[in-house]
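Record format v2
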Amino acid sequence: MEYFVQQLINGLTLGAIYALIAIGYTMVYGIIGMINFAHGEIYMIGAFLAVIAFTGLGIIGLTWVPAAIIVVLLIAMFFTAAYGWTVERIAYRPLRGSHRLAPLISAIGMSIFLQNYVQIAQGAKIKPLPPVVQGNIPLMESASGFTVSISYLQLIIILLTVGLMLGFTYLIQRTSLGRSQRACEQDLKMASLLGVDVDRTISLTFVMGAALAAVAGVMITMYYGVIDFFIGFLAGVKAFTAAVLGGIGSLPGAMLGGLLIGLIEAFWSAYFSVEYKDVATFVILVVVLIFRPTGLLGRPEVEKV
Amino acid sequence: MNRIAFGLIGASAFAAAAFAVPAMAQDITIASAGPMTGQYAAFGMQLRRGAEMAVADINARGGVLGRKLKLEIGDDACDPKQAVAVANQLATKKVAFVAGHFCSSSSIPASQIYNESGILQITPASTNPRLTDEAAAKGWNNVFRTCGRDDAQGTIAGQWLAKNYKGKKVAVIHDKSTYGKGLADETKKAMNAAGLTEAMYEAITQGDKDFTALISKMKAGGIDVIYHGGYHTEGGLIVRQAREQGLRAVFVSGDALVDNEYWKITGAAGQGTIMTFAPDPRKSQNAKGIVEKFKAQGYDPEGYTLYTYAAIQVWAAAAEKTKSLDVNKLSAAIRGNKFTTVLGDLQYDKKGDVSNAKYVFYIWDNGEYKEVPNMGS
């Protein structure tokens, strides 16, 4: 039981990170039907900005941890969002309306470009960050002496993710921006005819996705304490898988998919072997897609005439 | 007018080329290849620094066979596919010799290309036994190393574990790489032979960052010692996350931890990490002047830096001895002979391995690794 709870905490933390990144994939897909393969790299840039910002704050002497984390989050979200906006402006907008595959290839190109850009600008070596938040809360102890603990960082990651998800759902469901986004999702051309500024809505979608990826980047930097220019690839693949599992295009689906993948990885490692955790994840993905081709919460695509 | 201008540009370009060609023909191109980018870039840096210094020193003394050396750097990112591409590239550039690669999983596929192209390969760091064993089995004569082998390294680690942790719970983990799995399995074999069976055997994935599930599993299993076959990035994260969860098991690993980047990842959590590596080459008598020269450049020649330097020394000495760059002659000259290098004397056996290679134990203490005398015995 205690062991199960500990693995649940491990899995939820990992899943929260995946979910934050997965939202960026799913929103862009929902609106313009394109898979933004550069999104993993945007997350990586968020992580690098976190290291840069923490170092900068250390130099100017802002060392009160809660304030430092908030400032770093804001800096990372702002600059990463700027990257997200620029990528859309340069690489995707000129290709809108062209063949469906064109922006996909452009996205892959952008991913390679960003990876190499960071590699050259920041060096190929790993970037370590000394622990910012340390310590954990012991929750319970089993008879055999196994203590279940949740670290402060795990707690921060889970709470922050839940908060962002709630805020995001509100944004999409209740605000005018959310309404425009949902309109664009249903029919891009019709939305523009009815006076929705489509370009602006799409730009803001990229900005929001990038800002969430930046939060994931900051969290991962503090949680693992080491990043390199290559982390975007693996995280991107996992988050994309999460988006597909939950039903790409569906926002709650991305959240559910992210959490599920985190939990599958943790529990497979816990009760079977660590070696085959990725295999387990993808087998479950395949099984789900066989029975529900649109993912767990995805709606079947209606052929528009 | 335009045509004349073009003609002039063409002529001057041709003249420049004509001047450049004979100057280049004098040079001998040699190469070093390893992970210059990617998560193991710290080790690529060790190889590059060692090779650059060796080439500069040899050129200062007049080069090899009276010709200057020119260094090419190949980047395989520790990826077997890219290693083959790099090897092909180096072969088309007609390099005379390659000091590389770093990862065993790169050195092994690359060695085939070098064999086909008649290029001598001396790896400074790939310790997997298969590299020279398979080359010998196929009758190749171009593969050598300046480092030891994992069967030796695993044996000493396995025996030490069996002796010091009798009745305790040992977890053996590896990263599925040629090097990591090879070393972990050799260690396991030696440990089992000495009467200690592991309580857990798990494989992780290279590039993964989250090992919390594995650590909870080890914590629940009451593991006392973790033996890790793999590189410093994953090793460092495992230690850091283990200490965060309150798992105090001793962490033991191999020679792919020898870079201070390990400590940058672990921070204080790395205190007390034990690893096996050859006797510190920086303390060798022959290395004294070179270590000082490196330090004057603000670089600590740790890990495999001096091994790369030595690989180039061995090649240069063999070339001077045979007055040739031919792989067959060089190979015959190295096999069974002794070479004085920055590491000390290297005695080569018939297979291309260093027969007097030794492994000792180190402990990480406050950001540095220190040799522990008499720990293996």
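The radius of gyration of chain B is 23 Å.
The interface with chain A takes residues 36-39, 41-42, 44-45, 173, 176, 202-205, 207-210, 212-214, 216-217, 219-220, 222, 233, 236-237, 240-241, 244-246, 261, 264-265, 267 of chain B (CB under 8 Å).
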